[in-house]
Amino acid sequence: MKTLLVVDDDLDMLDYYKELLSPSYQVITALSGSEALNILKAAKVDAVLTDHVMYGMNGVQLIKEVETLDPNLPVIIISGSYVPEYEGILLLKPFNENKLLSILVEITCLKS
After folding, report:
1. Fewer CB within 10 A of the terminal residue: the chain, N end or C end?
2. What is the CATH number for 105?
3. pLDDT 10s digits, 40-69
4. What is the C-alpha to C-alpha distance for residues 73 and 50, in angstroms, rounded to an integer?
């Protein structure tokens, strides 16, 4: 089973993602960018799903740090608005759950 790291500073959103994704993935959650980086240093994950607007480190800042640890690790940002400084996979809220799941299948299959 593939492992996803989900990062959001909203505990309710982390619970939502865990419920949505757990049937297909092992889900590790982090409440902040710094917690996510600590997890990435200790665990192997197949993809990262992160909110953009978070207290402390935002999603783009987190991705820059993730790229120094593993430049090939797929990352998806979920945001309420367009993120011009990010050229990767961006899902705008509210997002379609099936769209998220299909993107995750695609990027985790490519990584294997």
Report:
1. C
2. 3.40.50.2300
3. 999 999 999 999 999 899 999 999 999 999
4. 13
Burial tier of 39 (Cβ tally within 10 Å: 0-12, 13-18, 19+):
middle
* Nearest alpha carbon to residue 6 among 78, 72, 99: 78
pLDDT along the chain (112 residues), means of 10: 96 97 97 97 96 92 95 93 87 93 90 54
Total structural domains within the chain: 1
Q: Which domain holds residue 43?
A: 3-111
The answer to whether 28 touches 38, Cβ cutoff 8 Å, is no
Compute CA distances 81 → 3, 60, 84, whole Å: 27, 13, 9
Strand segments (E) across 1-68: 3-7, 26-30, 47-51
**In the structure encoding, which two tokens stand for residue 69, read together?**
């640890």
- When computed from its CA atoms, the radius of gyration of the chain, rounded to whole angstroms, is 13
